[in-house]
Design brief:
Elements: H1 3-6, E1 7-12, E2 15-20, H2 31-46, E3 52-57, E4 62-64, H3 69-77, H4 82-98, E5 104-108, E6 111-113, H5 115-118, E7 125-128, E8 133-135, H6 149-154, H7 160-167, H8 173-178, E9 184-185, H9 191-199, H10 204-213, H11 227-233, H12 239-248, H13 252-262, H14 266-281, H15 285-300, H16 303-314, H17 332-337
Helix pairs in contact: 2-4, 3-16, 4-15, 7-14, 11-12, 12-13, 14-15
Length: about 350
């Protein structure tokens, strides 16, 4: 499949449709897809006949399962740098979506993970359904939430975003709305009618109004009921303290969260905690993406990303051998190294002073 086949473009009425089209790979993003999406947004912005952009995913399983992490692992093993080039353009696309001047409607139906969140949750109209399963599961593969994920999760109420970041847990429709990752719930059965209605819209204002008109109420989620222990436990200063609080809180769901966290990469956990808390203090998505690029560039050269992808995706033994294997083995210096400036290699989206100490 060439890059034009993996991202399909067409216009219905005055709405430009972008369809991620790798259904056998759950529409996982590669570099060519990112570049084609960027070109499509440039063309849509400059075309006065286009009033909105609509993002969907081909197939029945979901919008996008994330980046092509098999290729990233292969690149890391070969000592390459193509993944850094991919992230550079992907993060620029994430920022482009957030600043797109026309309505950017993302149908976050089915599975939406990692890079899939990056091309949808920064949009201006984000629609979830009862089938939506949204997650940033990076700590489970020895990586750290990126594509603006630390910025999004850092902005969630209380400590809900940090809970999702460390555990990699999945958010359904109601939880995504609560955490600010989505704007409207639309029942999956109503999506065809919504799409038809959007295609008849002649103005940006009509697109916004139409999306709101089809919005309904999502079934109750889980996070709202768990706010008390989530906010209390994840307010601790360190991952070790968070796990200790969770394990001793006396609530089964909290104890399960502790066990979930302890199965993740210790290095990724500590870097994620710092990244989300620093993102909360940054003044823009662009500054957070700059920070994430530093983190991703360092994580790319470490042992845990390669090992995590092996265990979860390649061999599927679900038994990663992290290095270090314990939280106590990850030093403050190890964490700080992920946030060190890259010199000429910086992403450079935000202001030069876009740091959070």
């Amino acid at each position: 499949m060439n890059h034009e086949d993996s991202v399909l473009l067409h216009t219905e009425g005055r709405v430009r449709h972008i369809t991620l089209n790798r259904p056998r790979a759950l529409n996982a993003l590669n570099h060519a897809m990112v570049l084609r999406m960027g070109e499509a947004l440039d063309a849509a912005e400059q075309d006065p006949s286009v009033v909105a952009v609509l993002l969907t995913g081909a197939g029945e399983r979901g919008l996008c399962a994330g980046g092509d992490i098999r290729s990233i692992r292969d690149d890391a093993l070969a000592g390459g740098r193509t993944s850094l080039d991919f992230w550079r353009d992907e993060y620029r696309l994430n920022a482009r979506i957030a600043r797109f001047p026309k309505p950017y409607v993302a149908l976050m139906d089915g599975i939406v993970m990692g890079g899939g969140v990056g091309v949808s949750a920064h949009g201006s109209l984000r629609i979830v359904t009862e089938r939506s399963r949204i997650a940033m599961p990076e700590t489970g593969i020895g990586f750290v939430p990126d594509v603006g994920g630390t910025y999004l999760l850092g902005a969630a109420p209380g400590e809900l975003g940090l809970h999702l970041a460390l555990t990699g847990d999945t958010a359904g429709a109601a939880d995504a709305l609560l955490c600010g990752l989505a704007d409207h719930f639309v029942a999956s059965g109503d999506l065809p009618a919504l799409l038809t209605a959007l295609d008849t819209c002649g103005t940006p204002e009509a697109v916004v109004a139409t999306a709101g008109r089809y919005a309904g109420t999502a079934s109750a989620g889980e996070l709202a009921a768990h706010r008390e222990w989530i906010d209390a436990c994840y307010a601790a200063d360190t991952v070790e303290e968070i796990v200790e609080r969770l394990d001793g809180y006396g609530v089964p769901a909290a104890k399960q969260a502790a066990a979930t966290i302890l199965a993740k990469s210790p290095t990724a956990l500590k870097v994620t905690l710092t990244a989300v808390r620093r993102a909360r203090r940054l003044n823009s998505l662009e500054a957070a993406l700059d920070q994430e690029y530093r983190v991703s560039s360092t994580a790319f050269t470490g042992p845990d990303l390669v090992e995590g992808v092996r265990a979860q995706i390649i061999d599927k033994d679900r038994n990663p051998r992290w290095s270090p294997a314990e939280l106590a083995g990850v030093t403050d210096e190890d964490v700080a190294r992920h946030f060190a400036p890259l010199g000429d290699g910086e992403l450079g989206l935000g202001p030069a002073a876009g740091t959070a100490d």
